[in-house]
Sequence to fold (113 residues):
Amino acid sequence: MRASGDVNKGAYNDAVSYRDERGVVYDPVPLPTNEVTDAVALDARLVRRPAEARKTIPFYSGTDGVELAQQPPNHRRRWTDAQWLAFEEHRKLEQEASHADEPRAAVWVVRDR
Fold:
C-alpha cells in the first residue's frame, strides 16, 4: 500500500522526454488526481421517435411546365408524352431566360501586393 504522499509516483514516466518530427521536446506532466476516474453507470437508453407518415404528393395530370418541374423526380415514371414535352419546353425556356440575365461586362479588381 502506498503512502498518501506517494499518489503521483509512477503515474507518469518523468525520466522520458518526447521529441516530435520538428524537434520540439515535450516533458511529461502529472495528471491531476482530484478528477473522477471511475466509471459511472448511467441509467439511460436510446429512445427513438416513431417515424412520421410520409406525405404523399398526388400525381399531377396536367401539362403545366412550372408545375411539372416542382414534382418529385420519381413521379416522372408515370408522365405521359405530352407532360414530357411540356417539361422539356419549360426547361428550355428557363435556360434561355437565364442566359438573358447574364451580365454583359465584368469588373476586375486588381490589388497591389
User: Anything to note?
Assistant: The chain has two helices and two strands. The longest strand covers residues 18-19. Helices lie at 65-70, 81-100.
